[in-house]
Specification:
- Belongs to the pyridoxal phosphate-binding protein YggS/PROSC family.
- By secondary structure, this protein is an alpha/beta fold.
- Helices cover 42% and strands 15% of the residues.
- It has nine helices and eight strands.
- The longest helix has 22 residues.
- It is globular and about 45 Å long.
- The structure holds pyridoxal-5'-phosphate (PLP).
- The site of pyridoxal-5'-phosphate has 17 residues, from strand 8 and helix 9.
Length: 247
Amino acid sequence: MTTSTPAALGFEDIQHNLNAMRARIAAACAHAGRDPSEVRLLPVTKTVDEHRLRLAYAAGVRQMGENKVQEAHEKWQSMADLADLQWCVIGHLQTNKAKLVAEFASEFHALDNLRVAEALDKRLQSLGRSLKVLVQVNTSGEASKFGVEPAQALELVQQLPAFGSLQVCGLMTLALNSSEESQVRPCFALLRQLRDQMQQETPYAGQMRELSMGMSGDFAWAIQEGATTVRVGQAIFGARTAPAAAR
Ligand SMILES: *Cc1c(COP(=O)(O)O)cnc(C)c1O
């Protein structure tokens, strides 16, 4: 699989890429014997400017994923006129930025410690908001990746009911950055196993549905392993020229 989609500059490029991505998701679902309505496409808009985000909105996009909180917050403010547009923060969060996320995000996919959970909950309570939360697990074992260790994930999730404004709904991961299926798929399979275990052994039971996994280069394998949300940037908006952000 390749991620070398040229930069999508106009409405038609973006619409074309969205449709192509939906077709690729449907094909991956057919291959996996799954119903495509079980897999959500979350467009990832990091480094994409407001003009192109508005074109994506015009093409029907109503949720956008951003890995940097500050960038997401600025885009939320400048696009506040699009009242039904939801923001999903998908990248690591420092405790001191939790209050920003609490203000505007509808989902947070990268919870990996109790301090952030506590900071989010405190702020959400005072704002009278709630937040869908996915716990990020480091399934690749790489030191450069964020996320709770697989062996610690259950214990973290078991402590989250203390934070009443967090709606814990699943797990998220970034696979090993490799083009080898045999290297990438085990990361996704491990996330699914952990999710299934949590359905049994945490107070969340049936609520822990989400598996947020798979990006432009590896979404088809993630769908094979049960992904319910794929986070796709470059295949929609084109190759990023900016340096790769921390994962
Ligand atoms: C950038 C990013 C993605 C999307 O990656 P693409 O290669 O652009 O599809 C997915 N998840 C996270 C956490 C990201 O930071």
